[in-house]
Design brief:
Helix content is 36%, strand content 17%. By secondary structure, it is of the alpha/beta class. It has a single domain, classed as TIM Barrel (Alpha-Beta Barrel), CATH 3.20.20. The strands form two sheets. Strands 3-4-5-6-7-8-9-10 form an eight-stranded parallel beta barrel, surrounded by five helices. Strands 1-2 form a two-stranded antiparallel sheet. Helix 4 runs parallel beside helix 5. The chain is globular. The protein binds ligand IDC. The site of ligand IDC has 16 residues, from strand 8 and strand 10.
Amino acid sequence: MDPLQKYGRLKVCGDRLTGEKGETVRLFGMSTHGLAWQPKYVCRECFEALRDEMGCECIRLALYTHQYKGYCTDGDKEELYALVKKGIDLAIELGIYVIADWHILMEESPLTYADEAERFFASLSAEYPGCPNLIYEICNEPNGVATWEDIKAYAERIIPVIRANSPEAVVAVGTPEWAQRCELALADPLDFDNVIYTLHFYAATHGKFLRDRAEKCLEAGLPIFVTECSITEATGDGAPDMESAAKWAELLDLYQVGMIGWSLSAGFDQSSVFKQGCEKLSGWSDEDLKPTGKWFREIFRHK
Ligand code: IDC
């Protein structure tokens, strides 16, 4: 039975993501690196192996908006859009969930490219109306100047655009300071159904302070989905902190929160899950994986 057959259409109920029978669903899976950087992982062989070998039930497609061949800057829009569609089509074919991640970062505020975002999400939701596999992550990591009020204004503009085609779609929303200020969403939540707030952590940088904040919000009933994380530093590199990582895993277990790992790449940095030079798109052995990759695989396989 594939993940979609198992859970069906997802819904946010109180503080949980739930399946068709009302059961709690924790989605585990991997995020691509920037789609323009690493397009090769968006293929059937890899997605199938992620599902069957790594235990991924969800793949996140990270579409950078601003940096290096960004969708809103110097990227090839058509090519990038086609890559997002390829990823979604593969997820549908393989019965896994897929997150369309509007990967804002350097531009700080989601308002910078709000017009582009509106066009992108209008188009995507029109192509996949009512698609139960597809989760919309409308702003990866607001930071810098972006306030929660800015993010709310953006979300209030984008969510209706998506909902016009997919009234029941789950929408994931980031908070200020690189998706770490979940308490602002708790104090002033969005007035829409099926919204889940994202929390991102990098275990070697984000320790107890962020876990305590997350726990407070979870305890108070805020629905949270970790749509990006690693056990390295927030730079994406540096030695993994296994002790902090174990505490994060424990916390997410306790509150039944899903987790998506960063990232599908064979780069030099420690958050790339494959060893540098690994060319494989499936059949990864222990020798092909960095500690980060092994950590995620262990969790996803034994969940
Ligand atoms: C990093 C990539 C790195 C790339 C950089 C560009 O790992 O190869 O050069 O982006 O800015 C995030 C971001 C994510 C980052 C990641 C690691 O969402 O885009 O990826 N990170 O720094 N937030 C916290 C850490």
